[in-house]
Write a structure and sequence with these properties.
Blueprint: H1 4-17, H2 30-37, H3 41-53, E1 57-60, E2 64-67, E3 72-75, H4 82-88, E4 93-103, H5 107-112, E5 121-130, E6 133-143, H6 160-166, E7 171-182, H7 185-191, E8 198-208, E9 212-221, E10 226-229
Parallel strand pairs: 3-10
Antiparallel strand pairs: 1-2, 4-5, 5-6, 6-9, 7-8, 8-9
Helix pairs in contact: 1-3, 2-3
Length: about 240
């Protein structure tokens, strides 16, 4: 005999698989599930917590719990901004500007941006949303001593790439690495996940023409809402 909370979990999954609940639908309230299964609220909450952790459901504070939308997939072989990727999937990107500050940074980032240590950079932290749901927290560093006219950039805009190119600078390429990282307490609060929940960490160094680095970015993404895809071709083995 399986535990009751697993029965509830399996029931919810069947409701979704059979089309009775679709992405974006609000699920029955805890009280309704308590009455349906004749169990405690704690048991119901345990089942719902599992589904949230698995990315099947998403909680919206003050609104309830909903069936998750499909995870958004982006390709590794195309250089787009976050906003461009999201728009291409038919969804609405937005951003909340958390901070902008002029600082001095570590030798490592200075070297990546090809600037002398001691030179200032602009650090920009933004919460990235898709259809008003938290998707990622990104931290970008822009060199002040570069061709980029920092004072003309609106960091409240969803697409900084678009603004850079509108100023006559051509974004040419980027190098990118993807790894995993656990959410600390602060990040968990912004992304509405549990502390130590696994996140996708994307680190990108973007270049304009003549191989000039213009942005170093570190982003932490919710893996239940964001995936990365890539086509691989096998070379002839000799």
């Amino acid at each position: 005999m399986i535990p009751i909370y697993l029965e509830i979990r399996n029931y919810m999954i069947k409701q979704i698989e059979n089309g009775f609940l679709v992405p974006g639908d609000r699920i029955p309230s805890e009280r309704e599930l308590v009455d349906l299964f004749k169990v405690s609220r704690m048991t119901v909450r345990h089942a719902i917590d599992q589904l949230v952790n698995d990315g099947v459901l998403v909680r919206m504070v003050g609104k309830g719990t909903y069936v998750s939308s499909e995870r958004l997939a982006t390709a590794l072989n195309v250089l787009n901004s976050f906003s461009e990727d999201i728009i291409a999937t038919g969804h609405k990107p937005s951003a909340k500007l958390l901070s902008v500050e002029r600082i001095q940074i570590s030798d490592t980032i200075c070297n990546l941006l090809s600037i002398d240590c001691g030179h200032d950079v602009i650090k920009v932290e933004r919460l990235r949303l898709v259809d008003d749901l938290e998707m990622a927290l990104t931290t970008s560093f822009f060199p002040v001593s570069r061709a980029l006219p920092i004072e003309e950039i609106d960091f409240n805009s969803t697409s900084i790439y678009g603004q850079i190119e509108s100023l006559g600078l051509r974004i040419e390429k980027a190098s990118e690495t993807v790894s995993a990282e656990a959410a600390d307490k602060r990040i968990a609060g912004f992304l509405r996940v549990k502390e130590n929940a696994p996140l996708l960490k994307i680190v990108r160094l973007t270049f304009i023409s003549n191989n000039v680095p213009i942005e170093y970015m570190e982003g932490l993404f919710r893996p239940d809402r964001y995936v990365i895809s890539q086509e691989l071709y096998r070379q002839e083995v000799r």
